[in-house]
What we know:
245 residues
Amino acid sequence: MDVIGVIPARFSSTRFEGKILAKISGQPMLQLVYERAKQARLLEDVIIACDHELVADTAREFGAKVIMTSKSHISGTDRISEVVNPLDVKIVVNIQADEPLIHPSMIDSVAAALLDDKNLNMATLMKRIEDPALVDDPNVVKVVVDKNNFALYFSRAAIPYLALNAEVKQPAYFKHIGLYGYTKDFLFTYKNLPVSDLEKTERLEQLRALEEGFRIKVIETNFDTIGVDTPEDLERVKLILQKLA
């Protein structure tokens, strides 16, 4: 296979236990994510990687392919690695289970970047920030890129910093959207990298790749997502989907 999508679906959550099974329009949030992933043109398969029988049973009920993984995994990357280790696949897309607004074209954009350029190891997404209030929100991760759209840095702070008397009066700010694509080989390299100082500082896992000197391609998208971390986030998503219906 060339490309598959894996949805790491951890049941436990500090702020919102069992959130991936929370209902949106009568369906578990995980089902919405899975069905949107299935609409991506470039994915040859979509797998839910979970650590809890309730999640597995629910996923099987709506027809998903499910693989049970260890409960000891610290990150989604570790969970995905367990799933893809025995598979003959070139590219893996990591799809967040708590982002039900994910658009299939976002998945295809990441997959296409890796398929089209054999020199790439890792790709992700960014969305131009239109609401100024989000620039200083530490829950919104920002990214700055070079002229070829490779990541220079990710931060919870407002980057680029607008200096006094700067020639640029309205810099562009971009939100990082945490959908990742990797080559299978690089996935295991990335998984085994040591936790970096920058990662510890910002609590952003992708910084370990930059700190080790690896490049991350960042594709701009016109679509946005909302990560559901709290019941309040869930209500925001419900309102958005009601407006789109």
